[in-house]
Write a structure and sequence with these properties.
5-stranded antiparallel beta sheet, 5-stranded mixed beta sheet, 15% helix, elongated
């Protein structure tokens, strides 16, 4: 959405991976990692700090990575701008989330990891206006182990478009994925850029 590229955008990562023939190493389960070098006391303490005590959820039917919320963090916003991603995603598609033109904002994503370490999480966002793609942004989120508490990830600060030509509704196609190309969640949402937060009818 911003006119300037954010520092953590990785615009052509797939093309770069293809050129380098990069393949992520085989994923090990949490139990396998905990069993490695278990006689090394200092390493065991370090791994416990990094990996926690074990899976939060043992039910294999529960997703390992659950994306719970996406918020637009803006100090100037009159109210919280957030979407619940655990509910009806179709209802989110029908709603317009409003940003005033020119304001600075960040995207905050909340998610949980339930069983195994997940490597190379990414947030990918394709932005379209009137059906035409106008932007693609990829943010490297990182690697995380299971824990009871949610994780939060904040993108770098961005500036909303400004000016008559840029006002209107933008459709965002978002995806939360990882190095192994797992689609943890894909959803669509609309962002309306307006002259004021609440315009008179």
């Amino acid at each position: 959405m911003s006119e300037q590229e954010a520092p953590q955008h990785v615009e052509e990562e797939d093309e770069l991976d293809a050129k380098l023939n990069y393949k992520p190493p085989p994923q090990k389960s949490l139990q396998e990692l905990q069993e490695l070098d278990k006689d090394d006391e200092s390493l065991a303490k370090y791994k416990k700090t990094l990996l926690g005590d074990g899976p939060v959820v043992s039910d294999p039917n529960v997703k390992n990575v659950v994306v719970t919320r996406l918020s637009l963090v803006c100090d100037e916003a009159p109210e919280e701008i957030t979407m619940d991603l655990t509910g009806d995603l179709e209802a989110i598609k029908k709603k317009n989330f409003v940003l005033k033109e020119g304001v600075e904002y960040r995207v905050k994503i909340c998610f949980k990891v339930n069983r195994d370490i997940v490597s190379g999480l990414k947030y990918i966002q394709h932005t379209l206006r009137k059906g035409v793609k106008v932007d693609k942004a990829t943010f490297m989120v990182g690697s995380y182990g299971p824990r009871k508490e949610e994780y939060e990830f904040l993108t770098p600060m961005e500036e909303a478009p400004k000016g008559t030509l840029y006002r209107g509704v933008y459709t965002n196609k978002s995806q939360f994925t990882d190095d192994d190309k797992h689609d943890h969640l894909s959803w669509e949402w609309n962002l309306s850029i307006k002259k004021e937060w609440k315009e008179e009818k």
